[in-house]
Design brief:
It is built from 6 helices and 4 strands, in the order αβαααβααββ. The chain is an alpha+beta fold. The radius of gyration is 17 Å and the shape is flat. 14% of the residues are buried.
């Protein structure tokens, strides 16, 4: 998943992922809602011991793929930059999850909520229009508390 380049197995995984994202966006829009993809980092994207294991490793590759695949079809909120900054600030890349489990602990949930709440409110405030057949427009909406986190508003 974190390797550079695309072999046959990775290509298959990416194609299925792309198809699922397209179905998600279409189903959500048919229901009259704006699809929003929240991209949550994995521990190995933040821990340099994992990312330095292979010279062809790129911990950003899944996020870059998702950004390229989403395009104009949905809003995207990528938490990786904010988690990286916070991990550097704390000097600890495991502060947000349980010791023996990669699920969020209380601090992790609180951190995500502090990013997600204003991002979703911003999407609501800009008056998302979901008119079928309308030409897509692209607008970036900065999230006030974490200026590098950008959710691309897509209608």
């Amino acid at each position: 998943l974190y390797q550079e380049g695309v072999d046959a197995k990775r290509k298959e995984i990416l194609e299925v992922t792309g198809q699922l994202l397209t179905q998600f966006a279409q189903t959500t829009r048919r229901a009259g809602a704006l699809p929003v993809l929240l991209v949550v980092p994995t521990p190995c994207q933040l821990d340099t011991r994992w990312t330095k294991r292979s010279p062809t490793s790129n911990p950003d590759s899944p996020n870059a793929y998702l950004r390229s695949r989403v395009g104009e079809s949905m809003a995207l909120i990528d938490l990786l930059p904010a988690f990286r900054r916070e991990s550097v600030r704390r000097g600890d890349s495991s502060w947000y999850h349980f010791e023996r489990d990669a699920h969020f602990n209380v601090e992790g949930h609180r951190f995500v909520a502090d990013i997600l709440s204003p991002a979703l409110l911003e999407l609501l405030a800009i008056g998302v229009t979901l008119t079928p057949g309308r030409k897509p427009i692209s607008r970036s909406v900065p999230v006030p508390r974490h200026p590098r986190i950008v959710c691309g508003h897509r209608t």
